Amino acid sequence: MFTKLAKAKTILTIKRFRYVLAALFCVAAIAIVIVKIPISRGATPASGTVSQSNTKVTWTGQIKPASGSSDCGGPNNSGCDNFGVNFQAPASSFGP
Questions:
Q1: Does residue 79 form part of some domain?
Q2: pLDDT of residue 89
């Protein structure tokens, strides 16, 4: 009779361990998704300025291939990843 009780306790312990392990796996997967999603979103920073003193702009984000469609509907659509470039004219003494 005690062996049946011991087996039942062992089975309950194994089941409990499986549930805890499954819960930890789910929490870890959700944590990875939460950390990964903001990284894979839009350009950082959202815009840059090219000027006489600052001849390059850089950003972090995906470079999407040109699709030829106008799905975005405009430069301010939050559903699209747009990087704004502002240009400042150089001084009149710059160049020939």
A1: no
A2: 87
**25 located within any domain:** yes
Question: What residues contact 41, with CB distance under 8 A and at least 6 apart?
Answer: 61, 81
2 has pLDDT over 90: no
| 48 touches 58 (CB < 8 A) | yes
In a domain, 90, yes or no: no
Domain count, the chain: 1
**Whole-prediction pTM:** 0.41
On the question of pLDDT at 74 being above 70, the answer is: no
Q: What is the largest CA-CA distance in the chain?
A: 102
Residue 89's closest CA among 51, 57, 53?
51
Q: Is residue 72 part of a domain?
A: no
